[in-house]
Amino acid sequence: MKSKSTKILRILIIVYAILYFTGIGIILYKGELSLKNLNDILFLLLSVIFLSAFCLLWVNEKMAGIIFMGWNAGVWIHDLCLEGGRDRGMISIMAVPVMVIGALSCLEWYKSSVNPQLSVPFHWKYILRVLLLNYSVLYIIVVISEQFSDKPYDYFSLPFILFPILFLVFIIGFAFSWKHELLAGLIFVLWYIIMLAGSVGYFEFRDSGPWIMFGVPLFLQGLFYIKNYLWFKSG
After folding, report:
1. Residue 63 falls inside a structural domain
2. Does 18 map to a domain?
3. Residue 27 lies in a domain
4. What is the number of structural domains in the chain?
5. For 216-225, b where at least 16 C-beta lie within 10 A, e where not — what string?
6. Which CA distances in Å does 194 have to 141, 173, 174?
7. How far is residue 97 from each of residues 65, 77, 94, 223, measured CA to CA in Å?
8. Alpha-helical regions (H) of the chain
9. Would residue 76 count as lying in a domain?
10. What is the DSSP string of 76-140?
11. CB atoms within 10 A of CB 23
């Protein structure tokens, strides 16, 4: 008997799949994809990977969740590093819900298979770690994509010196997250404050990418770390 949360996840992924493959169908109908173009082939390959995870979700939640998260990373690589263009970053943002569904699918597997007796704090710790690992992969993809862009960044002057500072702050927060949730939460909130200040104060920084949208999940992650520490420790 599947839990209510599992059923909700399946409904959400069905809705997403309908929208996703409808979009692909429209693109194919317009003739905007070519099997002679490597980027288009990789795009179609990603759709096959998505379909594989979708079918697998009904028999193996853990593997389906991992593939969904891998698919999301693949979309980010294709969008930021290979495709580019004026709408660079928007496709990546639209793929993030699948990453979240994949992480929650792994959580459902964890709750039912690893140790059903584990309490809620362990569930929170597990899902936050899975999400943070995903953010780390996506962050690295963003950093690498920026190195191949044609934008003249001077990382030793404002505002672009904020990029290495933010990356260093993220690494410190990631390291603390495994043992010191409160410190990690505060560091991630600090990361978002620095990013927000750079976006508000410098147009060049704000124009360099969808950093505000990318930073919101990390900001929420930091708040959850703080909440969990104060809530569960005091309890």
Report:
1. yes
2. yes
3. yes
4. 1
5. ebbbebbebb
6. 20, 14, 17
7. 12, 16, 7, 20
8. 4-29, 38-56, 61-76, 90-109, 120-147, 162-177, 181-201, 203-206, 211-234
9. yes
10. HIIIIIII-STTTTHHHHHHHHHHHHHHHHHHHHIIIII-TT--HHHHHHHHHHHHHHHHHHHHH
11. 12
Determine contact, residues 137/226, Cβ cutoff 8 Å: no
pLDDT value of position 97: 92
Length of the chain: 235
Domain of residue 11 covers 1-109
Model confidence, pTM: 0.87
Q: Is 68 helix (H, G, I), strand (E, B) or coil?
A: helix
Name which residue leads in pLDDT, 33 or 18: 18
C-alpha distances out from residue 30 to 7, 16, 23, 26, 27, Å: 35, 21, 11, 6, 5
Tokens of 134: 């995903």
Position 206 pLDDT exceeds 70? no
Question: Buried b / exposed e across 32-42, counting CB within 10 Å, b at 16+?
Answer: eeeeeeeeeee
The percentage of residues in the chain with a pLDDT greater than 90, rounded to a whole number, is 45
